[in-house]
Write a structure and sequence with these properties.
Layout: H1 3-10, E1 16-18, E2 25-27, E3 33-34, H2 38-47, H3 49-57, H4 61-86
Antiparallel strand pairs: 1-2, 2-3
């Protein structure tokens, strides 16, 4: 999950986000600047951190199909399970 997605998910009054990092500004529908609760954003990002780590480590679809062809579905499942076990849902 991206930081902007976490802000939108935790602050329903934010409709626009401009900039990144120190230059980031969040606005409501009337273009008023909204102060973000960083602890809410950090917690939201932590909820889905495992998904980002898994996505980065899963083999490409082509390699997964090749794994199924050479090792069967059970071999493929073992490959995927190793990544899921490394980055469990918390």
């Amino acid at each position: 999950m991206l930081r902007h997605d976490a802000i939108y998910a935790t602050h329903n009054n934010v409709v626009t986000i401009r900039g990144d990092g120190a230059d980031e500004k969040c606005y409501d529908k009337d273009k008023n600047i909204i102060t973000i609760n960083e602890s809410l954003v950090t917690a939201k990002l932590a909820e889905t951190e495992y998904q980002d780590k898994r996505k980065a480590e899963y083999p490409s679809i082509i390699n997964q199909l090749d794994d199924i062809y050479h090792n069967g579905v059970d071999g493929w499942k073992a490959t995927i399970k190793a990544v899921k076990d490394k980055y469990p849902k918390e």
